[in-house]
Specification:
two-stranded antiparallel ribbon, 228 residues, binds zinc ion, HNH endonuclease, alpha+beta, 4-stranded antiparallel sheet, globular
Length: 228
């Protein structure tokens, strides 16, 4: 029996990476589509399976409510998420309790749009991406990563007028730099409209860097073993 991707215990369960709920089911897709082909899995012990499962639905909410998500993500919101909300209305209440109305501009088309911004529990979001990144490392390199993982999503921005500029500018710069660095790198993952990732070797600053893309446009940069 294989060992858990996070520890030395026996891997008694099979974990999907990213969580299966992120991938639309056949019944929610046009005839003949399959976006659950050869999903990535890793062995996990009971403890790490439970820990991860708790965050699966949270991650799904954050990703599909995200404005840059592609059509597949948008459709997933209209189907699966709406069903989940109908089943458990408290979930969405919790999620929206912090929302504020915002007007945003698409910097490519110049178009303005009214939408809402939601406060994200960064601890929870980062925890979920942290486990996901370790699982991908295990799957990709057949080797566990027990060192430090640092996470930088492109799409979580500050709206606090006091700090927004200082917080958001470096995020936007890092996103641009990451797009350049990964421009010609191959993508892995069978269902690329839902999830794909790239990986490069780092330098003396860190060991490896991964770029995760959910619904094409929701991207997260992950640094393995970043110094400082
Ligand atoms: Zn474990």
């Amino acid at each position: 029996m294989a060992e858990c991707y996070m520890c030395e215990k026996e891997g008694t369960t099979v974990e999907h990476v990213p969580p299966k709920c992120v991938f639309p089911e056949k019944k929610d897709l046009p005839e003949g589509w399959n976006l659950r082909s050869q999903l990535i899995t890793v062995p996990a012990c009971d403890e790490h399976n439970t820990k991860k499962s708790k965050n699966d639905e949270y991650i799904l909410y954050v990703l599909v409510m995200n404005l840059p998500a592609n059509e597949v993500g948008g459709n997933h919101f209209q189907t699966k998420l709406i069903r989940a909300i109908e089943r458990n209305p408290n979930l969405i209440k919790q999620f929206l309790s912090t929302h504020q109305r915002v007007t945003i501009q698409d910097t490519e088309t110049g178009e303005w749009q009214n939408t809402i911004a939601i406060e994200i529990d960064r601890h929870r979001f980062d925890g979920a991406i942290d486990m996901m990144s370790r699982a991908l490392h295990y799957e990709h390199f057949s080797e566990k990563w027990l060192g430090k993982v640092s996470i930088q999503p492109d799409f979580l921005l500050s709206l606090d007028p006091e700090t927004a500029r200082d917080t958001n500018e470096p995020i936007e710069q890092l996103a641009k730099a990451a797009d350049q660095v990964f421009e010609n790198q191959p993508y892995f993952g069978e269902n690329k409209e839902v999830f794909k990732y790239q990986v490069i070797n780092g330098n003396d600053q860190c060991e490896k860097i991964m770029r995760l893309s959910f619904y094409s446009n929701c991207k997260v940069t992950v640094f393995f073993g970043l110094n400082g």
